[in-house]
Predict the structure.
Amino acid sequence: MASAMALNPAAGLQGMLKDGHTSLEGLDAATLRNITAAKELSHIVSTSLGPNGMNKLVVNHLERIIVTSDCAAIVEELEIEHPAAKMLSLASKMQDEECGDGTNLTVSFAGQLLDKTEELLRSGLHTSEVIGGYKKAADRLYEILPTLSHQSLDATVTEESLAKVISPVLAAKQYGCEEFLAPLVAKACLSTATKSSSSPSGLAMHPDSVRIAKILGGTVEQSQVIHGFLALRGVETAVTSATDAKIAVYGCGIEASGTEAKGTVLMKTAEDLKGYNVSEENKMEEVIKSIADAGTKVMVSGGTVSEMAMHFIERYSMVCLKIGSRYELRRLCSAVGATALVRLGPPTPDEMGYCDQVKVEEIGGRRVTVFRQNPNDESSSSKTATHNNCRLATILLRASTSNVLADLERSVDDGVHAARMVCKDVRLLPGAGATEMEASLQIRTYADSRPGLDQYAIRAFSAALEFVPRTLAENAGLDPAVVLAGLSAAHTKGNVESGVDIEDEVGSGILVENGVVDILATKMSAFRLAIDAAITVLKVDQIIMSKPAGGGK
């Protein structure tokens, strides 16, 4: 204890901390190093921005190959160790969880802000002056964005209107497939949406209500929406279909239950052995018969199904399906309105599920079991009020390779989250870089009115916003200088919806009649997370790292 209390003043920080620690402080050692690390991460993902963004091929530590342009997937697979870059990674992860889309904007814009900060710091501005300017510019940005919302989702949400909003989200990852995929996602989302008086659109939906199933082979155009649940395996019985089916779901196996304690059965004659087997068969038949008498047509087991139980299930002409995953079993229960039972016996009417059609189909050479519900069908008198709605929709994706399938799944998942966000906030912004260009011009005007040194940071913030149209132009093979000059001139004349025309091969690259839209809530969330991450990195003036635990790696 005495040796620990003895501090050598000449040793400084080295004498206060344990051996093996690392300390970095000052502008060059800490701040600029953090900025450089964040810029490197931003540079990696910025070339993947927009419909013409490039894919990244990432091989993770398990030698799994990921080919995608989705920023959230790229950042997640990268083993980032630098703490400053990890802050941008966390911001991207939060944006992906909340909104699904806008992850690339979050990381890229934060990197652009830090890039502009490096120039300001080298020119003599203090970090606090830069942070103060960025906060003022951010407040101004949050005021500008709602005023640029000149259109919104229709009061009566249709598949066409929702597909128009989802299409740009899908085009950013799967350019060329959005015209086919967007109606599928819109159809699946609307079939599971519920009415909500608190939502501006009158609808509320949860991403968990839309499931994604993948079957290798075929083309993207063979993808389809199934109103209900799809199990990627066939049934165990000879009976392969049922209509207007009552469903019993068991979380346990369908077999004779074993005793908790070991016992010994003494059999002296053959008759004793035959009688023992008969009693076991009679007991199993009694259980299966009681389940069939309850009106059950389909039995689903989360465990094993014994041969004896299968024999009696076949005798009473029921369909039996095994689902090994507990997660999939919960999805099925949600789709059909059933309760997973933990005991083998006849279910009560409240515990039983219902499905319009259960059928084994062959898709791409693979047998699958489809639980199909008829949405908004109230004609069947056997249904209760809770069975009139489609609780779960499955989007079945087809593609030629597993990498394409995985990327399609990520894109569709982003589209589902986009549908949820636009149902919560129906306001839309002009896309294709139009919003960022208009905000940049207005914030630049705001900077000219500021008397203090923060005007330089506000002007740098304005310049950072231009990276979206510039990057879209670069990734599309256009001249970014010409496109930015044309956009600036168009917005100065009052054409606030003018954006980048990525399909323009001979013109100026300016999209005057801009049909591309972005979701206001998603855009606001992306900018807020990016600005917060950048400011957090700038506030760090010293990095202290202790000696890593464990042995050598």
